[in-house]
Design goal:
Length: 288
């Protein structure tokens, strides 16, 4: 086994005084080489900075968020390290892995697969919530306790929500852009969960935010969700944010602040418009 915390620097670009870096490392969870992006704000103090993990959507790599969202301005302003991993293992030579854009490579759905064909490599849930935390602790902090929050877009917005709801002790806050809110009830989710988790739908609820809010036992939380009203994936019932709002009505400990943003679509033009609000939201929790 190689040490996943040993990083190779792939690229480094100065951006808003800090550095936008991309690293490569050998993942034990995914059994392949993975890339992830790390924005490191300029930090003249000795203080360990808090961390925000971004999870991207279907078809993305570690590049989409860092090249399209313009988040670096806010990461430097609030002095928050931002980590953006790839969305699946790559190059595992699994038959059919690259045939579809919404399953396999680029579409790990942030679950730990149980179906034998995928179970060895497709473990994005454990990669994000365990291995990546170890990598961050060893490389980007002074050994201090981690202060980490999590957010994401679409498949990654849902990945952020389930990561938080299953690990309230690991994260300070959570937010999402256009999340696939109820995957067990939409075509993308049904297809991916059948492939990764098998056809027994009872096994799917462990990775569905609408089911998880009902079992949530952490401290009271508010999830910030931004959703564009002109989002084609909203119109084709892949996202279903109202199901999440409804699921939260039955619990007192999870509240969703769903902001329907008039005229915006599913793209990074939407994300870049509201990314500053999400940094302001997370900074409140990370700095306390
Ligand atoms: N190829 C697809 C569209 C794929 C797409 O829109 N992906 C979104 C995330 S969708 C949910 O997870 C995305 O973030 N794309 C990357 C980008 O840079 O925009 C199609 O043709 O419909």
């Amino acid at each position: 086994m190689t040490d996943p915390t040993v990083l190779k620097l792939v690229s480094s670009n100065k951006c808003f005084q800090g550095l936008q870096n991309v690293y490569e490392h050998s993942s034990n969870e995914l059994k392949c080489t993975m890339k992830f992006a790390a924005y490191l704000p300029k930090n003249d103090s000795q203080e360990t900075l808090p961390v925000l993990i971004w999870l991207s959507g279907l078809t993305c790599t570690e590049q989409n968020f860092i090249t399209k969202s313009g988040f670096q301005k806010y990461a430097q302003e609030y002095k928050i390290i931002v980590i953006a991993p790839d969305t699946s293992p790559r190059g595992c030579k699994i038959e059919g892995e690259t045939e579809k854009w919404d399953f396999g490579e680029g579409a790990g759905f942030y679950v730990d697969s149980t179906e034998p064909k995928w179970a060895r490599n497709y473990r994005m849930y454990s990669y994000v919530n365990n291995e990546l935390h170890e990598v961050i602790r060893k490389n980007f902090t002074n050994g201090d306790d981690l202060r980490v929050s999590i957010f994401g877009h679409s498949m990654g917005g849902h990945g952020a929500m389930i990561s938080f709801l299953k690990n309230p002790n690991k994260y300070k806050s959570v937010s999402a852009f256009s999340p696939i809110s109820n995957p067990i009830n939409c075509d993308w989710g049904k297809n991916a969960f059948t492939g990764y988790l098998g056809s027994n739908v009872e096994n799917w609820s462990a990775y569905d935010s609408c089911c998880l809010v009902k079992q949530y036992n952490g401290p009271s939380v508010e999830i910030l969700v931004d959703q564009g009203t002109e989002d084609n994936f909203l119109k084709s019932n892949q996202l279903n944010p109202d199901n999440l709002v409804k699921a939260c009505e039955d619990t007192s400990s999870v509240r969703v602040n769903l902001r329907n943003q008039e005229g915006y679509d599913h793209s990074y033009y939407f994300i870049t418009t509201f990314i500053g609000d999400h940094f302001e939201f997370h900074a409140k929790y990370l700095k306390n």
